[in-house]
Write a structure and sequence with these properties.
single chain; 4 helices; alpha/beta
Length: 241
């Protein structure tokens, strides 16, 4: 989830990596899914309290991204993808977008995602890794976040599950900001987490206070932290077609 201005603090978490048999150089490292035996519906797995997979290489992979244009023109979405690629290209992830025009009702983030799911009978379509609703609406969410929400992913690591590989995000006056929102929420679906953010955004070509997975749009850059890049590459290499 991405907020526009205010900083959203995450509870510090410690992940313990268990040393096992060494994988081949190009294989992502899959960690034990400790929640799987008690989480048949993936609700707890979608928090990814423990990273699911990491990769130490930038093996090329294609990420097929379906962008649903809810009140957005295709040219605007294309400019956002151009910005997004600045974060994903260095990881070896080639973003391959397709576009579809939609007209969804309301501005509640979760309900917009529900409409995207209904469009495809509850799961991502064949040949698509992630479905992203790009909307011109000022989206909102239940609870204290309210109108401060700029984007929302259905599940951390949602690319693993056909029913959870969905996200929604707003457009902004700047195509770079729209691209940041898109890249951030897709990053969540690829295992990226707020609590792995860092000040590494300062090292990017368009420096900002935090890396891409920081919780506030006004503070992030188009650059993954070292830790988040490991998760994002691992999920993409395992689950993107």
């Amino acid at each position: 989830m991405l907020r526009r201005f205010r900083l959203l603090l995450a509870v510090p978490l410690v992940a313990v990596l268990v040393v096992g048999p060494a994988p081949s150089e190009a294989d992502p490292i899959v960690l034990p899914d400790v929640l799987a035996p008690i989480d048949s519906d993936h609700l707890l797995s979608c928090t990814q309290l423990v990273p699911h997979a990491i990769s130490l290489t930038s093996e090329p992979v294609r990420l097929d991204l379906r962008i649903l244009l809810d009140g957005v023109v295709k040219a605007e979405a294309k400019r956002a993808v151009t910005a997004m690629r600045k974060a994903y290209g260095p990881l070896g992830i080639r973003v391959a977008p397709t576009y579809e025009k939609v007209s969804f009702k309301g501005r509640d983030a979760e309900k917009l995602t529900e409409q995207a799911k209904r469009l495809y009978k509850g799961k991502r379509p064949r040949g698509v890794d992630i479905v992203y609703t790009m909307t011109s609406k000022d989206i909102t969410a239940a609870g204290p976040l309210g109108d401060d929400v700029a984007g929302l992913a259905d599940c951390i690591g949602g690319v693993r599950y056909a029913k959870h590989a969905f996200a929604v995000g707003e457009t902004f006056d700047s195509s770079v900001d729209t691209g940041k929102c898109l890249a951030h929420e897709v990053g969540h679906l690829l295992g990226g987490h707020h609590h792995y953010t860092s000040i590494e955004g300062l090292l990017g070509p368009e420096a900002n206070l935090l890396d891409l997975m920081g919780p506030s749009l006004s503070l992030i850059s188009l650059r993954f932290s070292t830790l988040n890049s490991l998760m994002v590459k691992g999920h993409a290499q395992l689950y993107a077609d």
